[in-house]
Specification:
By secondary structure, the chain is mainly alpha-helical. The chain has a two-stranded antiparallel sheet. The longest helix is centred in the first third of the chain and has 20 residues. The chain is globular, with a radius of gyration of 20 Å. It starts with a helix and ends with a helix.
């Protein structure tokens, strides 16, 4: 099960894992050793043949696993048709694959969606942080949050929390408040809001009155 989850059935990573399992035994150790080989494989065999748009899409999908062309196009300031073209090229390379997603299965009955194998996404997140730096990663997470539709506000908050941008959290909550109040997680939204400078000012004002 763990092998299926982390590799998403990606043939290259399954083969690497199998090779290590024959030598080291436990599945978790085989996966860890395979991840080291995966990094080399990605950096030497896969990423060099990706054009700029494909690399940008990969960086985004490493942070936001749902490959919605509209969101990706908005974040990267690309035409949606070009994003779909990049998706197609990544699928041809075999790096964008159907990924088993229990939440999607439960919500829609669809057994799979396209996405990055988790082990691939982990490596790309690490290299993105090292290459671009924490500020650039945080800025991309904020752009993803802004691009998500109202019904995706929970995921947007996850990105803003990861970015640790209190001002962006405050602005987002105030802008999306009608959509948030229609849901059942108002307490979380209010808790985040009161952690902001605005929330502290409101609290202090109430205390003085």
């Amino acid at each position: 099960r763990e092998i299926l989850t982390r590799t998403a059935g990606w043939p290259a990573l399954v083969a690497l894992t199998a090779a290590h399992l024959r030598r080291v035994g436990p599945a978790t150790l085989g996966l860890d050793r395979a991840a080291e080989d995966l990094a080399v494989y990605l950096e030497e065999e896969v990423l060099p043949v990706c054009d700029r748009e494909m690399r940008d899409v990969l960086d985004l999908l490493a942070l936001h696993g749902d490959p919605d062309p509209r969101v990706v196009a908005s974040v990267l300031s690309l035409d949606e048709a070009r994003v779909r073209g990049a998706f197609g090229r990544l699928a041809t390379l075999g790096i964008l694959v159907p990924v088993v997603d229990d939440a999607t299965v439960e919500a829609t009955g669809d057994p799979a969606r396209l996405g990055l194998p988790p082990a691939v996404a982990e490596h790309l997140r690490e290299t993105l942080a090292a290459r671009a730096g924490p500020s650039a990663v945080a800025a991309m997470r904020c752009r993803i949050a802004e691009a998500l539709p109202d019904e995706g506000w929970r995921v947007a908050l996850d990105h803003l929390e990861a970015a640790r941008d209190i001002d962006a959290i405050e602005a987002f909550l105030l802008d999306r408040l009608p959509a948030i109040l229609d849901g059942s997680e108002v307490a979380r939204a209010l808790a985040l809001l009161t952690r902001s400078d605005h929330g502290h000012r409101v609290t202090e004002s109430r205390e003085t009155t």
